[in-house]
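Table S2 (continued). Query chain:
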Amino acid sequence: MKLKPAPRRYTQTARAQSAEDTARRILEAFLERLMTDWFDEITLDRVAADAGVTVQTVVRRFGGKEGLLTNAVKIMAVQIRARRGEAVGDIGSVVEGIIDDYEATGDAVIRLLALEPRHPALKEVLDFGRSEHRDWSSTAFGEALSKLNLAVRNRALDALVVNTDVYTWKLLRRDMGRSTAETAAIMKCLVEATIGEFTKPNRKH
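Corresponding output:
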């Protein structure tokens, strides 16, 4: 009687799972470094040590820091969406979500933005983040924006993107030293003022 090659399939599955677990540990280690360190100061040696693997394993799986960054951003995007939530139409909840996000990632993003002119690899990643933020703003404030014609809608969206940008958060939280509650209140005022200005009945378009 011929036996089925189940053990081999099991071994292949186990190896694939082990490889995925290793990749996840490497990316998590890199993300932890990215949240506290400057991108150009992160070394593959540190990431490998944090993940409990060799540098050769990191290079074989991701190619280098640029490959790590590209893959880590995908994980960050999922985490960012989860923190911001789906509070469409409720300005207070929308602002609270984005403040939660910036409290977790804002300093890291600001560091990446500061290095953008020196590291071309960062531009693609940051452009992705800018696009994601604009898409989020379009959805979060979609009800108010839907009342406007296309040209005015785009200008209003530009203003809302600025109102809720990471630089706005940095100005309030880091430069002015405002609390999270104060920052949320000010950002909410900015958003409400923008929506009110662009949607008022007597506004000249």
